[in-house]
TrEMBL record:
<keyword id="KW-1003">Cell membrane</keyword>
<keyword id="KW-0472">Membrane</keyword>
<feature type="domain" description="G-protein coupled receptors family 1 profile">
    <location>
        <begin position="39"/>
        <end position="285"/>
    </location>
</feature>
<feature type="transmembrane region" description="Helical">
    <location>
        <begin position="100"/>
        <end position="118"/>
    </location>
</feature>
<feature type="transmembrane region" description="Helical">
    <location>
        <begin position="268"/>
        <end position="287"/>
    </location>
</feature>
<dbReference type="InterPro" id="IPR000725">
    <property type="entry name" value="Olfact_rcpt"/>
</dbReference>
<dbReference type="GO" id="GO:0005886">
    <property type="term" value="C:plasma membrane"/>
</dbReference>
<keyword id="KW-0297">G-protein coupled receptor</keyword>
<feature type="transmembrane region" description="Helical">
    <location>
        <begin position="24"/>
        <end position="45"/>
    </location>
</feature>
<feature type="transmembrane region" description="Helical">
    <location>
        <begin position="201"/>
        <end position="223"/>
    </location>
</feature>
<comment type="similarity">
    <text>Belongs to the G-protein coupled receptor 1 family.</text>
</comment>
<keyword id="KW-0675">Receptor</keyword>
<dbReference type="GO" id="GO:0004930">
    <property type="term" value="F:G protein-coupled receptor activity"/>
</dbReference>
<dbReference type="GO" id="GO:0004984">
    <property type="term" value="F:olfactory receptor activity"/>
</dbReference>
<dbReference type="Pfam" id="PF13853">
    <property type="entry name" value="7tm_4"/>
</dbReference>
<keyword id="KW-0807">Transducer</keyword>
<feature type="transmembrane region" description="Helical">
    <location>
        <begin position="138"/>
        <end position="160"/>
    </location>
</feature>
Length: 309
């Protein structure tokens, strides 16, 4: 639908045009999305209700799980519902909202992962000053800064998107709205905007990943002075953090650091990034963390016992 030389809606091509495959996509992604919500909801509620999970690490994990659930919600429901229809239409305003929300919660996740790495660094490298440095007030300020940073990043993305003029083709070869596929439809030379997107999203992903890598190398180096038990515990926590970092940043760097090229594999990488990562995070953190598992057992089994009494 065109008016005033502008596009008021876009047609998403989705993951596939094959109607049989679309039914499979509906079933598989609905289950994955519900599992993501359930897993992250369990972590959020457990941390909120538990008396034992009061440390800064779990304070940040609470926000990571919240960001995960929201990040998944920006793309998964649309992908699931669209798989029921042959023609997948998204309005211009919905498209812009999706770009803003996806970048906001994706960036929030990056900043929270950095805060978690910083928390582990202080706990392992400066144990005597840990409670002074990572007090409740400072942790609160750090989370507020993460929200503000995410808002600045997503605002920059949306300003770039709103400047794009659309006057002709309106078919997006993707399952969601993002700047890269939109740039291909704009009726202007998008070279500069593309470079800005890469320098914004690409830089955030790459620099954050390098910062996290360095922090984990420093942590591992400092562990040599710890006892065997201390080393084992610290390694267990840091390993689960590092797995999450690699799973999240790999696809992010792959998609956002290449200017002016879209590859056929992009859709699959985006699916993994937007739907699989938010599901894997709660699994990694709960399966590898005895404290979270014990707190969950106490809270949820305790509630079941109360109901039975």
């Amino acid at each position: 639908m065109m008016h005033n030389n502008s596009v008021t809606e876009f047609i998403l091509l989705g993951l596939t045009q094959d109607s049989e495959k679309q039914k499979a996509i509906f079933g598989v992604f609905l289950i994955l999305y519900l599992m993501t919500l359930l897993g992250n909801f369990l972590i959020v509620v457990t941390i909120k209700l538990s008396q034992t999970l009061g440390s800064p690490m779990y304070f940040f994990l609470f926000y990571l799980s919240f960001a995960d659930a929201c990040f998944s919600t920006t793309t998964a429901p649309r992908l699931i519902v669209d798989s029921l229809f042959q023609k997948k239409i998204i309005t211009y305003n919905e498209c812009m909202t999706q770009i803003f929300a996806a970048h906001f919660f994706g960036c929030m996740e990056i900043f929270v992962l950095i805060l978690m790495a910083f928390d582990r660094y202080v706990a392992i490298c400066k144990p005597l000053r840990y409670t002074t440095i990572m007090n409740q007030h400072i942790c609160g300020i750090l989370v507020i800064l993460a929200w503000v940073g995410s808002c600045i990043h997503s605002s920059a993305q949306i300003i770039l998107a709103l400047r794009l003029p659309f006057c002709g083709p309106n078919v997006i070869d993707h399952f969601s709205c993002d700047l890269q596929p939109l740039l291909k439809l704009a009726c202007m030379d998008t070279y500069v905007i593309n470079l800005l997107v890469v320098s914004n999203s690409g830089a955030i992903c790459t620099v954050s990943f390098i910062v996290l890598l360095i922090s984990y190398i420093v942590i591992l180096y400092s562990l040599r002075n710890h006892s065997a038990e201390g080393r084992r515990k610290a390694l267990s926590t840091c390993t689960s953090h590092f797995i999450v970092v690699v799973i999240f940043f790999g696809p992010c760097i792959f998609i956002y650091t290449r200017p002016l090229i879209t590859l056929p594999i992009d859709k699959m990488v985006s699916v993994f990034y937007a739907i699989a990562t938010p599901l894997l995070n709660p699994l990694i953190y709960t399966l590898r963390n005895a404290e979270v598992k014990n707190a969950m057992k106490k809270i949820w089994c305790g509630k079941a016992l109360i109901k039975n009494i």
